[in-house]
Specification:
This protein is α/β, with parallel strands linked by helices. The chain contains twelve helices and 18 strands. The protein is 27% helix and 26% strand. The structure holds zinc ion (2 copies). One zinc ion (ZN) binds next to helix 3.
Length: 358
Amino acid sequence: MNPQKFSPKPAKLPRRMRALVKARPEPGLELREVPVPRPGPDEVLIRVELASICGTDLHIHRWDDWAQGVIRPPLVIGHEFVGRVARLGALVKGLRLGDLICGEGHIVCGHCRNCLAGRRHLCPDTQGVGVHRAGAFADYLCIPAANVWPADATIPLEVLSCFDPLGNAAHTALSFDLVGEDVLITGAGPIGLMACAIARHCGARHIVVSDVNPQRLRLAKRMGASRGVRADHESLTEVARSLCMKEGFDVGFEMSGSPEALDTMIAAMAHGGRIALLGLQKQPAPVAVNRVVLHGLTLKGIYGRQMFETWYKMTMLVKTGLDIRPIITHRFSCTKHKQAFDLVASGKCGKVILDWRG
Ligand SMILES: [Zn+2]
Ligand SMILES: [Zn+2]
């Protein structure tokens, strides 16, 4: 049976739409009118409802060295979103108009060794939505049907709009067994906070979160942290002792991109400890290799999230009670993008959402 048979009649599409564009090779973004993209045979056109702002978007906004090397303006940016199917390419099966969906922002080659083996998150030839091709900060977004994740409509829309970063957090946190383990998280940005909530949900014992931002550390406590640690003036060893930990942390998630944080983490691990690294180091980080060797540590790099096992896991985590809503602190209409980006740049927020409805 062809599920498309029961699709509602497609509404007439406008020719033009609002989109947040990196218009020129300089700092800033512009809300402009651009043509509505037309889906190719294996693509889906999505009416975006909510989209959340990522650190990547902030890099593009600021036009830093990374952005200058990767982004080719003019480009519609953004990759964290939830929306509804507005058009289906002729070859797309299994989706219907109006379906609520999220999308994986990494578009993979499909024919390298990792892709063929089902390890698509490890494809060396990945294209990023809102980085290498038009993104989700727009009324409409076009992506391959293979990148669509049909969303569970019982999950709040705001939470679904954060499934991309929640996927980073879940992919990191679920890298190792957490039951009964003592976990150290360096960096209490939104993904660190989400990883904290997941570790609590999955049965970790102590979860210690370190950051320099007291507001984020308060949020960490709310997300289940046993202790928040001011990385700039508190000793991790003291905190570990006060929690009656004898040999160090069993599991570490490095989310800050700070070389000092990584060094502190390696020093604080128990023998046989396992570290997952998501934060990109802002400068070359010296790694205490001898300690890694002598203490039998495991270091695992994390990029993106598994397609689509992580999406399944996070759906089920949320459905079994994981609540990330306290991490979502601000909402703005897309027309107020300047205020939204200023707030994200200030760091005085959790996740910030842009509303594209209406
Ligand atoms: Zn992101
Ligand atoms: Zn590939």
